[in-house]
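We emphasize that the prediction below concerns an isolated chain of 192 residues; any contacts that depend on oligomerization or on bound cofactors are therefore not represented. The input was used exactly as deposited, without trimming of termini.
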Amino acid sequence: MPKERLSAFSDGVIAIIITIMVLELKVPHEASWQPLVELAPAFMSYVLSFIYLAIYWNNHHHLLHTVSRVNGTILWANMHLMFWLSLIPFATGWLGENHFERLPTAVYGVSLLMASLAYYLLERTIISHQGKDGALAKAVGSDIKGKISPVLYIAAIVLAFHLTWASHAIYVLVALMWLVPDRRIEKAVSRR
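Result of the prediction step, given as a token string:
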């Protein structure tokens, strides 16, 4: 089947996820700085999660440019990714509401880890569908960032119980690694 429905569905799900996250930010009832200061952890966790979702949307968009048609396996792999992305608002809210405490920091990392594994699975499913000579397989090659990210997330989850600031630094580091969309996919698509 054509990829357009999958792409439109995914775009809609990610838009809804972002909307849910922003609705979790509570508007202060006072016109002073103190309520804004108290809201800072929730706002900072929202900003980081917004960046992550933007990264996923951007890379998902690039990923689907390598596909002309999808099958049922790709649809399910994509739904698996959407499931884990849909849990990010929960982890974000819990993290912000609890001022970056240990367990919420670890759960946030688990949500990021599972989303990254689901994205990797979607990527591998598309490569399996296209074959080793397909555009995506040629574009991603060994996919160093894709292999390093889960390792960093696991380290951050473990560190959450000892050095929460280190976990947050790792989450920011991984986001910075992925901030620029993968140019290899753009190049592979332009060569077709």
